[in-house]
Every structure is written in C-alpha cells, then in structure tokens.
Amino acid sequence: HVIRREDYRAPDWMVPEIALDFDLDAAVTTVHAVLKVERNGSDAGPLRLDGDGLTPESVRVDGREAEYHMDGDTLVVPLDGAMHHVETVVRIAPERNTQLMGLYASGGNLCTQCEAEGFRRITFFPDRPDVLTRYRVRMEADKTRYPVLLSNGDPVASGDLDHGRHWAEWNDPFPKPCYLFALVAGDLAVNRGTFTTRSGREVQLGIWVREKDLAKTEHALEALKTSMAWDERVYGREYDLDVFNIVAVDDFNFGAMENKGLNIFNSRYILADPDTATDQDYDAIAGVVAHEYFHNWSGNRITCRDWFQLSLKEGFTVFRDQSFSADQGSAAVKRIEDVRALRAAQFPEDAGPLAHPIRPDSFIEISNFYTATIYNKGAEVIRMMATMLGPQKFRAATDLYFSRFDGTAATCEDFVRCMEEAGEIDLSQFRLWYSQAGTPRVTASLSHEQGSDRALLTLRQSVPATPGQPDKQPMVLPLKLKLFSETDGSAFGPEQLVLLSDLESEIAFEGVSERPVLSINRGFSAPVVIETDRSAADLAFLSAHDDDPFARYEAMQQLMLDTMIAGVLHGRTDHAPVIEAVANTLGDERLDAAFIAEAVLLPSENFVGDQMATVDPDAIHRVREALRRDLGRSLEGLWRQAYEASRADRFELTPAAKGARRLRTVSLGYINAGGAPDAAGLAFLQFEQADNMSDRQGALGVLANGSSDKRVAALDIFYNRYSDNGLVLDKWFSTQALSGRDDTLDQVEQLARHKDFTLANPNRARSLVGAFSVNQRAFHDASGRGYRFLADQLLALDKLNPQTAAKLLPPLGRWRRFDADRAEKMRAELERILATPGLSKDMFEQAERSLKG
Ligand code: ARG
Ligand code: ZN
C-alpha cells in the first residue's frame, strides 16, 4: 500500500486531550485510554483510530458501550456529535515485542518508542503527526521491579498501593503528536543536575540508567547543559518545562528519541568513561544529546504536518547539532567528518536504486525513510540557505519560523517561506533541492591566456537521473571559490560566493596576471560532486597552501583518489605526488594534529568504488594497500616522529588531546602498513599500556588487520576484559568484521555463531552484519558467500525486527555497479528475499526498490 504526499488531507477528528492509564507488567500491560475527540470540519466521516496488532476489549462513547467495527487493524467508531469522549481498553505484551516499537522490555525495564508509527501498537489513536493532544498519564506497577515511573512533562502525584504496587501520574501541558509520547518503568538510578534558563526557570535534569552504569553518565549530563545554553545563545530557544529526563536503554532501533521532556536513548549515546568509550564515542554522545535536546524546538514545539515533511525537523536539527559540535572543538575537523559521513552514506544512496528527494513523494513504510538523505542531505540544504542568507538574516528567518509556527504541525514549504521573507531572497528555484533527488555534478574549468590580466571560469552543472525522475532541472548551487597564485601562494582577491543556477555559466576574474589555481566549493558550500581539470601539481599546491582547511583536505583527498583510480584503471600509478603532499602536511607545524590525522587518511575503498563505473573490489583493495604500504615505508621516519610526539603523559578530553590520540593511531597504522618489523610489537604495547579506549581500540584495529601472532592474543585479551560490557563487545565484533584480512568472511561467518552474537539486540546485529556489509572487499567476495550471509541474516532478523533488518539491506542494492557475475549473485539474493513468505513491508519495500529502481 503506497502512501502519497499529494493525498494529504486534514484529519477528520482532532483529539485535544487524552487520559492514559497503564497497568504495567512485562507479560501483560493493560492500557485504558480516554480520548476527547472533536469533529474537524463538517464533512468528517466516522472516527478512525489506528491500531497495530491491537484487539479492543471494550469501546465506550460518552460512558456507554458503543457500536464499532474493525477495518483491518483500524478501529472505526461512528459518531454523530461534534465532541465525544471515546474510551478503549487493550492489552499488550511488552516482553514479546521484539520489534522494539511501541511499549517493550529492555534489560528488565519497560520503555517506549513511538516515532514514527509505534503509538498505534500501544493504544488506538489517530497516529499522525498533525493531531496534537494534551496528555495525562497514570502508571501503575510493581514497586520492587519498577520503582521508577516516568512519562512526558511534569510529575503530578504518586503513591503506594496494596500488594507491593505503586502509581505515578504525569502531565504534559504542551499539546503534542502521539509519536512524542513516552513512558519508562524500571529499576533505574539517576545522575541529577540543574540548568537555569536565561529567564530564570530552574530545570531539574536527570540521566537515568541502571545502577552499574551511573558512573558513565557525567559526560552526557554536561553535554545536555552545554546544549541548553547553546540553543539560548545561538537560536534564542529556551527550555519550557521544569524537568528534562533522559533514559538510556540497551535495546534500541536507532540513536535516540526526542520524546517531550523524556528523551530515550540507545545506551551507546549516553554511557562513557575513558576505559570503555573512544573519543569518537564521546563526540557522538555530545552530538546526539544536543540533537535530541534541540528537537524540543525543531520537532516538538513545531512538528511535522505529515511524514513527508520529516526533513523539516531532521535536516534542520542535524544542521543545528553539527553547528553545536563545530563550536565545541575544531570547526574545520567537524566539517571534514560531516562531509565524510555524507559521502559515505548519502552520496551512494542518491546514486542508487533507493534515491529519493529530501521531501519524498511516496512511501510504503515510513521507517525506511529515516535516511542519510532526509537527515544529512537535509542538513546540507539548510546549510546552503544559511550560507546564502548570511548569519544575521538566517537568525531572523529562524526567529520568524519559531514564532510563526510554534504549537503547530508545519511543512518544509513553511520553513522555506520564512527564509525567503526574512532573508529577502527568492528561493523559487532553490526549492528544487526539496523535490529533485540525485547529487548534482559540477565541472569547473579555468582558463587564462598568457600575458593577459583575466581568468575565465566555466561552470557546468548536471543532475543525474534517479528512479522515477529521468529529467532534471538545473539547481541553485552556492559555490564558495577563490583563486591562488602558484608562485607566491597569495590569493587573487577575496573568497567569493557564486550562485550557479544555470546549466552553464562563465565568470571572469580581473587582475589575474598569471595562470591561477582554483579553490572551489570551499567549506563544502554545496553538497555536489566537483570535477576539475586541476593537475596533480595544482592539487598538491592547494593541499599545502589553501587557506580554507576544508579545501586543503579536499585537495589532498582528490590527489589520493586520482592516484588510486589511475592504479585501478591502468595497473600502475605514480605515488610520488601523494607521498610528497603527505610529507608536507606531516611536517607543517601550523597544523593541528586532528586536522593532520584527517588529511593523511586515504579515501575508503568504498569511496574509491563509488567513483568507478564498475567497481573492482579486489583491485581497489590491492591498489589502496600498495599506496598505504608505500606511504608507510617512504615516510617511516615522519610517522615515528608523529607517533612519539603525540604520546600523552595523562588522559585528557580536550580537543588537542583527542587530536593527538587520533594522529597517534593513524601513524601506527602507517608504520604497520609499511611493514616495519617492530610494528606489531609497537601496536601490542600500545594496546596493553593504553589508559583509554581510543588508544586500545586503535591498536586492536591495527593488529586485527594483520597476521602477527599478537592478533589473536589481543582479541582474546580484549574479549575477556570486556565480556560483561555489551557496548565494548560490539567494538570487538565490528573490529573483526571491518578487517582487511583475506579470511574476514570466514571469521564473520564464525562470529555469527559466537555465543555473544544475537540479532535481538540492534547494536549487536549492526556491529557484525552492518560492519561486514560495508567492508567492500570481504562483502563482495567473488564466491557470493558474503551476499548469501547478509541475506540469511536479514531474513532471520526480519522475523524479529523488520525495521532494523530493512535498514541493513542497501549494500545489496549496489548490484548495478558490479561486474555481471557479482551483480547476478546480488540480484539472486534480493529475489530470494522478495520470494520469502511473510516478509515485512519494511523489507519488501527495500528489496523491491533495490531490484527495480
Ligand atoms: N527522531 C529520532 C531522531 O532523529 C529518530 C527516530 C527514528 N525513527 C524511525 N522510525 N526510524 O533522533
Ligand atoms: Zn532527529
């Protein structure tokens, strides 16, 4: 059943209020709901309440037993008046809820996940985001098993009952869509804090976890306070309730959820201490805590009219969390990381069968659209508007948006109109970013006649065809650019922002007395692919002299990419320019360690593959390893210097210390790649002496890639040390699944039979199956066994948790990019999935689109 954006209709009935009563128990929970419903317009039909697997035990209207019927899973109640109270009772079984949508059990506690359509698994309700309701929630449960009872909003009252039971009542004064409903019941400890808003409201903060994890919550609590202050300062947004609670659970389908006043998190985005969390984990925690907190305004106070508008809250909120994180450390390195993530996840999506615009036109299962396109490309689209408006007008535009749409369910169009009005800019053509899928390509070529004073830049754009969108219009592409002199490194004029809106355009630069070098798409000002005719020498020059750190990084990446692609296509390639550029970067004292570590890393095998008409995974692996070896060997002295210089006396979490650790492990990787005889010993020493997880996991990764006798020892030590810590065991699984060794596929098949492997926990499933399927060479083993393994796991997982299963399918959809033999094997697995009886609609949609799209 396909849902289309153009079919949107306002709801027939509104639900201004609901009273929910839960009799909580893991085996059987009884849900009693009283909905105050109001007719919306005169041609409203009967009241239709969504359900998913629910059977009504009783339906009453205005206190009397009512007529009703079921239309599939939907409860239909004929009503004649303008306002009624509709009362339903259902029973649900949280401990048998393996989908982890609705009310479910995790680690002995009970929690909820309702976005997008999980509330209908709890009670009958119009489960759509444009129905805004005031919630009163009463929970009753066994006091020993569930001493803590939390829901949205503010606590109202609580008390004890007979038979060891107790109750609590919560009230949320802000009308909200049902996807923001949450409750938690469990045996939880709390790390409390307070935050005073700038208008003087004292907010009680709480991070709730199991007792044993309490010591790992400080970083999340600090990140929350920092986020609250940041949103006041940067966007003028204040918090609006007296409490803000976060609960961490181990079984969670995604990262976290912004339920009003009661965020629920995957524990991997809360728990951290130096012994178990890497620097990346620390950063991700701060980023996700900020993201969910920022949703209070961009998502909750203003929500989405329908799920086609998802990017309205997600794209904007990702942009907000990216800006927040950029402010906490090196903005340049944060930008590099964000672009790398975009290229790793979103560009392939945009270039494959699952391509969709950031505001899709149709879907079968909305869960399949929580994608890198909606989130990350969505954030890039907001960023482009911010760039074009400039900081002051952008702030005026977001102020206008927040004040005009507060308390409503809005659309992407509403947001863009605020940008236009406050920004005094016409965004008619820019709106194509909301409707056209595909990554635009820009070719740039610069000409300069010798002896003249003028350079001419020719820009051409094209937007590739995507499924269902064969013909594209030219888009508005904001490109920051600058020209440099190769002779003395100076710039010809300041940076310019060019808006490329035609298919082709020419820009003249005056006062350019020699052939300049082009620096383009600086800061990655537009999420596009740039093709230039710049030589290896030009790129090497920019990698050493560009004054935009992103452009500098980019020039180096392009140089490395060109070098590897030449190797794959022609069998041989000249490593010298890359080696020289890396040496320059390593030796540049003005650069900080974090930047250096990013700049000297080779583009991933997947990324190289994404640039080729036909991916040759074995050749790419061989060529990339050869370049790594050469870099390691030729620059061994510099790597050792960097390795020693980034040694720390004591553990700190400052940006500088994190950068040093990153450079240290990157250097270790190169020393090892170069074949230094003491490399494995060095890695093992780092592994054993580490006083933090970044160093330890970094060393383990290096060892797991190699074949020294230290490899098995280190994996065993790591396993035994952390066998009771699920989040660290996930690292143990993924490190092995990502290994570049020849036997990785065998290892992964074995790990799937390991006693600690389970598909029931999404983090664990992703740590092995998800990690393996992005290991390009291992997954694309010519035998096709990698494909079969993935399909087997997906089919098994689909029975438990369709949402998480469907999210892991896309690697099979890359079949068009491989040789006929591999493509046929991949297709065969997709066909096998589609032919499986009882397939979920999540998996059906993903497999079908992957095959046909
Ligand atoms: N809104 C949540 C967030 O962005 C994610 C919810 C994911 N839901 C889903 N059905 N995939 O943080
Ligand atoms: Zn979000």
TrEMBL record:
Keywords attached to this entry: Aminopeptidase, Hydrolase, Metal-binding, Metalloprotease, Protease, Zinc
Record-listed E.C. numbers: 3.4.11.2
Superkingdom in the source lineage: Bacteria
Domain Peptidase M1 membrane alanine aminopeptidase: start-end pairs: 220-430
Domain Peptidase M1 alanyl aminopeptidase C-terminal: 537-852
Pfam family, one: Peptidase_M1
Similarity section: Belongs to the peptidase M1 family.
Protein name: Aminopeptidase N
